[in-house]
Amino acid sequence: MQRLPGVGPKSAQRLALHILKRPEAEVEALAQAIIDAKKQVGLCQVCYHLSSEPVCDICRNINRDNTTICVVADSRDVIALEKTREYKGKYHVLGGVISPMDGIGPEQLTVQALVRRVSQQQPKEVIMAISPSVEGETTTLYIGQLLKPFTKVTRIAFGLPVGGDLEYADEVTLARALEGRRELD
Amino acid sequence: MQRLPGVGPKSAQRLALHILKRPEAEVEALAQAIIDAKKQVGLCQVCYHLSSEPVCDICRNINRDNTTICVVADSRDVIALEKTREYKGKYHVLGGVISPMDGIGPEQLTVQALVRRVSQQQPKEVIMAISPSVEGETTTLYIGQLLKPFTKVTRIAFGLPVGGDLEYADEVTLARALEGRRELD
């Protein structure tokens, strides 16, 4: 139990004792549910988002814009972006970011599949939506170079978070907010 | 002492007892320093930033770009932007944001002085750098409309803070980050 994310020794003990107290049938149901989830949920063959079908709901949805692909590091980012209800295009999940220190290069990610998909599908725009860490920046720029021959490549804006206060923003964020300024409509 | 910002009853008591313990000369020096600061620090006649001179250091600095004016709500924002070392132009401090609920309209702020300054000085660009609250947005759009006849008006970028994670960004920020996306260089 301790190996689960966010579960320390105390929580692990509490979880273990809770399970031991429940009726046997209930515990078996939990174990079965875990096995089933692992068996049934795989990756979408098109976008590599988590999916219980060979092709995920988003990729199969004909009402979504097929001409825009949003590239994210992780399935969690797809869920976060879906919550905004602003984005109507498709996704591509890389499965991580390029991080030579951790031995993760483009080959460990779904970069090749993305390039193939973009060169075949010829979308109008690819939006890079990767968190602005050093590794994230590297990934954005690397993939941007690869995709530019095929399509327009954009990236999400960095700057002040909405509701954030100028005074409390860190210097790098403020500098990016200044640099990324846009003309008022 | 309790009326000072961030000072609760306990801190106030600690401050008061500390002062009572110090030698009389030291206490008088503190009191005098407070009076002097209040007497000497006024507002810059040009930009309304805090200044001990009639015109502040930034406005007098001939090495700074005279063709860009950055409009902020508060002197604290000037200090925050100066820390980035990215901005080399001048400022204009509004003294707050438009907030009809609190009885603050453009007349309570230095809006008129800003319009006069821009119409006379004809800067190449005015950057609106106001925190993205409802009142901040109103202020940005209102002043933007006033200044557009004279110059190009831009605003700082809103989006993911640098080092922030996509997954933890709130929905409105993510939506703004998507909306404000830019083409990769």
Describe this structure in words.
- Two copies of one chain form a homodimer.
- Chain A has 185 residues and is an alpha/beta fold.
- In chain A, 42% of the residues lie in helices and 12% in strands.
- Chain A has seven helices and seven strands.
- Chain A has helices at 9-21, 24-40, 57-60, 75-84, 111-121, 134-147, 171-179, and strands spanning 42-43, 50-51, 68-72, 90-93, 125-128, 152-155, 182-183.
- Chain A has a four-stranded parallel sheet with strand order 4-3-5-6. A two-stranded antiparallel sheet of chain A has the order 1-2.
- In chain A, strand 5 (125-128), helix 6 (134-147) and strand 6 (152-155) form a beta-alpha-beta unit.
- Chain A is globular.
- Chain A starts with 8 loop residues before the first helix and ends with a strand.
- The interface between A and B is large, with 55 and 55 residues.
- Strand 7 (182-183) of chain A pairs antiparallel with strand 6 (152-155) of chain B.
